[in-house]
Amino acid sequence: MASFEEIRKVGVIGAGTMGRGIVMNFVNAGYPVTWLDVNGEMLEKGLVDIASVYKRSVAQERFDDAEAQARLGRISTTQEYADLQDMDLVVEAVYENMDLKKKIFAELDKAVKASATLATNTSYLDIDEIASATQRPTQVLGLHFFSPAHIMKLLEVVRGKATAQDVMDACLQVGKKIGKQAVLAGNCHGFIGNRMLEKYSRQSREVVLEGSTPWEVDQALQGFGMAMGPYRMYDVVGIDLGWRSRQLAGIGRGEPIVWLDNKLCEMERFGQKSGHGFYKYEPGSRQAIHDPETDMLAREVAEEAGYTQRDVGADEIVQRCILALVNEGARILDEGYAESAEDIDRVYLYGYGFPAERGGPMSYADSLGLDEVLSRFASLRPVRVISGNRLKVWFAGLQRVSASLRSKLRQAIKNRGGFTAPRFFCGFF
């Protein structure tokens, strides 16, 4: 049986950006951490980077040098799995590759004591498949930190099919101890946040193909109150991550919605880290500067993909992107991958910069009311033929919403108190 009190020693695997942030979360909360990476140079660099973060915090008078040294003193490094033997919780934070993660979990299963909990920081991958590499699936779960992990408040605690309740409860308490908004999520592709983000991102890219620009999309959504527009977000995360994943998967160009990304990466415009992505950045600055060349490239891609450009207004941009979040959130509730709409709202408030004054996407839908949401869906028009005989119809499912179903939806809202009531389902697309 796992318990919060029994989690005293933590192991972290991976010395990349996420691993470094996760290490800081735990040592900041008083946990001793054994940090493993097979690359000793990465570990050394990771320690230097963490020391630099703490040095800046001391300079900003967030805590004193003695505290900084105490936190650094709680970190030990290793390249050997055997050194994790007495850990109570191990968090894997390597890159998104299923084969690699299963190999690591098989090694952990052999090396770490039988009572230990094993967690993966995956953003999308199947927790159950990862757990299948072990003899302890009841003690395997997802702990999905958000980047930068030592700053962002959200932690998705992802339940696998076999994950024991006491393991979930203990990790939810650990999440609170390390200062996170810990939200329980079911095991589906992207869990809660990234599953919804996929729909939001698709609309942000579709409207650019139809006639908007990345800058206009960001301006519209930041005007709605989002902390950061999607294209600024892509630059911060790194445009090349998706591009390299497509290359590794043998997908090549992918759908037209990623052709602009591909073109930028072929020009070595990877985002903020390279000084140029969808936006330009002055040396040493993170300030995004509108780049007219990006607008030109977007028009070229749209023409190549067979789109007829039109004027896409800010209101349409906001409606399409935000309603996509609302609708997918409703699906997640209906399928039981979130325990409540309030949890979905917490995910978007603390992980994705949704405007606090709007309460989260589900609360925002509630504030509008079902009739208004239905009306806004209905106001959106199908998109034209893209290429060949394939019709791209946005919200195609809306065309199949019968009057009787609309009536049922209204009754569901009435009976359950709104979009924020558990297990309400819009069913539009």
Descriptive overview:
The chain folds into three domains: 4-186, Rossmann fold; 193-305, N-(1-d-carboxylethyl)-l-norvaline Dehydrogenase, domain 2, CATH 1.10.1040.50; 314-416, Orthogonal Bundle (N-(1-d-carboxylethyl)-l-norvaline Dehydrogenase, domain 2). It has 17 helices and ten strands. It has helices spanning 17-28, 40-59, 65-73, 98-111, 127-131, 165-177, 193-210, 214-224, 230-237, 239-248, 259-266, 292-305, 314-335, 341-351, 361-368, 370-379, 403-416; strands spanning 10-13, 33-36, 75-78, 89-92, 117-120, 140-145, 154-159, 181-186, 385-387, 390-391. It has an eight-stranded mixed sheet with strand order 3-2-1-4-5-6-7-8, with helices on both faces. Helix 4 links the parallel strand 4 and strand 5. Helix 11 packs across helix 12 and helix 13 packs across helix 15. The two termini are 42 Å apart. Residues 382-402 and 421-429 have low confidence and may be disordered.
Oligomer class? single chain
CATH third-level topology of the largest domain: Rossmann fold
How widely separated are the two ends?
A: 42 Å
Overall mean confidence score, pLDDT: 89
**Secondary-structure-derived class:** alpha/beta
* Radius of gyration of CA atoms, rounded to a whole number: 23 Å
Biggest sheet: strand arrangement: 3-2-1-4-5-6-7-8
CATH class of the largest domain: Alpha Beta
Largest sheet: 8 strands, mixed
The total number of structural domains is 3
The low-confidence parts are: 382-402, 421-429
CATH architecture of the largest domain: 3-Layer(aba) Sandwich
Task: Tell the overall outline.
Answer: globular
Number of beta-strand segments:
10
- Estimate the helix proportion, in percent: 40-55%
CATH superfamily of the largest domain: NAD(P)-binding Rossmann-like Domain
Query: Would you list the SSEs in sequence order as H and E?
Result: EHEHHEEHEHEEHEHHHHHHHHHHEEH
Please give the count of helices. Answer: 17
Proportion of beta-strand residues: 5-15%
